[in-house]
């Protein structure tokens, strides 16, 4: 009889310990899920092929040999995705926040923060991919009142000039990353924050005919 009672006690003890382990494991998994939901994703995209092609393109087309700008619209808009690449140092010297076009979504919203629609069509309010040459410095009604004319060099962005696609600043664009929130979307222009534009303006006033390449990785 005592032996039977002893075995029953062991079974009950084992069951309780197993239940506690399950409950503890579940709690840890829940904690991990909560952390994963708020953690900023690591941007591990290898742009070396783009850098090499851009350098060759600049040499072949008599563009600025010091640096170029790469904008990756495949990156979440709440993260920095406007990169100034220094050919001399073979490294990114600056990175900034930048907007993309809202398309059929509401202007200044963030609905397409993860996957913007791309188009070269008139009145599409979309961003266009491809290589651009940054030309003359002009006056803007936005931001710090400075813009730069963009000339599309490919079929995918051939309407840039007639669509009035320019590089400018906008008060709505944040300077720092806001992920998982997005950056306000405009009508297709690559717009940066006022503070960022002040730095970019100094760069472009010194270096002429700079290549801007907009991609979607």
Automatic annotation (TrEMBL):
Please name the Pfam families in this protein's record.
Answer: YkuD_2
InterPro entries membership = YkuD_2
The cross-references to PANTHER family, in alphabetical order and at most eight, read: HYPOTHETICAL EXPORTED PROTEIN (PTHR38477), MUREIN L,D-TRANSPEPTIDASE CATALYTIC DOMAIN FAMILY PROTEIN (PTHR38477:SF1)
The name under which this protein is listed is L,D-transpeptidase catalytic domain
Q: Tell me which species this is from.
A: Flavobacterium limi
């Amino acid at each position: 009889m005592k032996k039977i009672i002893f075995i029953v006690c062991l079974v009950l003890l084992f069951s309780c310990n197993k239940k506690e382990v399950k409950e503890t494991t579940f709690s840890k998994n829940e904690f991990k899920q909560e952390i994963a939901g708020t953690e900023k994703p690591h941007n591990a995209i290898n742009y070396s092929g783009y850098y090499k092609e851009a350098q060759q393109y600049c040499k072949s087309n008599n563009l600025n040999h010091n640096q170029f700008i790469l904008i990756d619209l495949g990156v979440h808009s709440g993260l920095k995705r406007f990169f100034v690449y220094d050919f001399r140092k073979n490294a990114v010297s600056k990175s900034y926040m930048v907007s993309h076009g809202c398309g059929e979504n509401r202007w200044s919203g963030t609905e397409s923060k993860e996957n913007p629609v791309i188009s070269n069509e008139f009145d599409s309010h979309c961003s266009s991919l491809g290589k651009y040459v940054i030309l003359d410095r002009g006056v803007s009604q936005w931001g710090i009142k400075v813009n730069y004319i963009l000339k599309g060099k490919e079929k995918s962005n051939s309407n840039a000039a007639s669509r009035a696609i320019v590089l400018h600043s906008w008060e709505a664009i944040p300077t720092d990353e806001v992920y998982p929130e997005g950056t306000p979307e405009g009508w297709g222009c690559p717009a940066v924050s006022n503070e960022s534009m002040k730095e970019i303006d100094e760069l472009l006033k010194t270096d002429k005919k700079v290549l801007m390449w907009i991609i979607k990785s």
